[in-house]
Structures are given as structure tokens and as C-alpha cells.
Amino acid sequence: MVGDQIAIFPASGKLGGSLVKYALKTIPAHQVILVARHSSKLDNYRDAGAIIRTADYDAPETLQHAFSEARTLFLISYANFEHEHRSKVHQYAIDCARRSGVKHIFYTSLAFGAGGNSSVAHVMQAHLDTERYLAKISSEDPSFSYTCIREGLYSESFPIYTASFNLTNPSSEVCIPHDGQAPGIAWAKIDELGEASASILSSFYSKPSEFGYKNRIVVLSGPREWSLAETVQALGRAIGKEVKIREVSVEEYIAQPQVELRLTIKGTNMGKEWATAFEAIRNGEAGVVTPDLKEILGREPEDFETTIRKMVSI
């Protein structure tokens, strides 16, 4: 009914696009408000009956009424790893949603932290801030609840952990501030994370009183942990070339042109901040394997090497 819809923001992008695709298989389109910076990308869902709105994390005024008439918000995190700005825009979006009458927020966090409430990874800090903010609101307002979904590290995001390794123009060495040995990463495929997240959202929509993830953090991981050495070997097998890790200092790592290019955010080289992810991996933060993704999908999740081989064959 009107006034009881589910808002999804941002509803485009890789994870958002997958989430919407699967969510609308079980949730009627007229019950869904899709919000995105480039809302024209969602026109096909408008034709199906969804409400389409335009909003942007970096244009706060657009968020003030973006979630009106929704009672549930699926909030996908801001798409870069700046800590303070990212935390600020997340909290502003949450505040706007609550003022609009939203009573439950799903938030896509990240699977660093080994399932706990701390991390040495800079990329995880805004996620932890947002998780704590939602928990604080819930503790102060019994009518409000939340679910934080720590999405597994995307299989398709391997370049940011392998010095921008390029499958079509590969090097024989991956120079990173890590020796490649375990612990590693429990890689997960983006589309399967979107499918599982949509299933969680749908279960809340259909039976909110029986929902098992209220005021909880759920970790969606891939089926096994891959050390960075195993990750690089799998990349090599997929392209038919031997590839090895060479451990370098943080300074050498961030001085590589392809790394500097990828990790320069709004004119600032954030390579040192990103390099903390390798320390987190070394500490076992990204290698936690949980059964949740498999149980929600009802099948074994696709393994990392299969995903990579499919990328190569496209």
C-alpha cells in the first residue's frame, strides 16, 4: 500500500543493479521506490510500475524527500573509501530516511573485521561508523530496527588487491605489500551477493514479524578462503600465464603508476590508506567463511576461479 514501500538507494551500480533485478522477482514493483543519481538508467523499472526518484549522496538536498512514503530503506554504501565524508553522507541519508518515516534500514557493509566490531582497514572505518550509528538509533528508539549485511569482498574487485592486475594486459608480477600467504580473502561474486541480499530483503517484506536478521550483522562470504598467492595463481591459470607475487614496501606499492591512478580520489593519493587493507588481510579480517550465502542462495556459491574464467571468456 502507499506509505509502506521499500526504497532502494542507490538502485543502480553493480550491487544495486543486481539487488533490484532479484528483488523485483518477489516484491511487486509498485511497492518499490528506486532512487539513483542517474535515474534514467532505471526507466525499464518505471515501466514495470516502480517509483523512480533522483538523488545523490553528494547533493544532500536531493536526499531530503527521496525516501518519502517508504517504511523500509535498503541503503547501499557510498562508492569510495574516504572515511569521514563517507560516514557523514551515510548518516545524513539515514537521518533523512527516519524523518520520512522509515522504520527499518538495511545497510551494505563490507566483510572486513572478521565479523567483529573493529578493523585496521581504512576502507572499513566508515562501515563501522555506520553500523554503530544504526545500532545507537535502535537502542534509543524501539520502533526502529536495522540489518547490516557485510558483503563479501567481490571476486570481480580483485584488481584493487593485486596492484591493478589486468586480465587483458597482464604482468608476470603482482607487487603488493604482502607476501601472499594465508590468511586471505573469502571472495564472493557480486551477482550472488545481490541475489542473497534481495532474498533477505524479500523475507523481511513478506514476513517482518518472523525476520531473523533484525538488529543484527550478517556476513555473506564466498565458499572458501583464498590466499593472495592462490588468488594470483588462479588469475594466471585463467589467462594461461604464470603470475607471482613480489612483496614490496608500502611506498613502492603506491608509487606504481597504475596503483596511483586507481587510488587517487578527488585529486588526493590515498594509496597509504588503501594499503591498510593488506594489513587487515594479513590479520585474517577478510578470510572468515560463513554458511549464510550458501544457505540463502540454496546452492553452493560460485568459486573465485570460476568467476574469473568467465570474465576472461567474455
TrEMBL record:
UniProt superkingdom: Eukaryota
Q: SUPFAM superfamilies annotated for this entry?
A: NAD(P)-binding Rossmann-fold domains
Domain NmrA-like, which positions?
A: 5-279
> Which is an annotated Pfam family here?
NmrA
Q: What is this protein called?
A: Unplaced genomic scaffold GYMLUscaffold_28, whole genome shotgun sequence
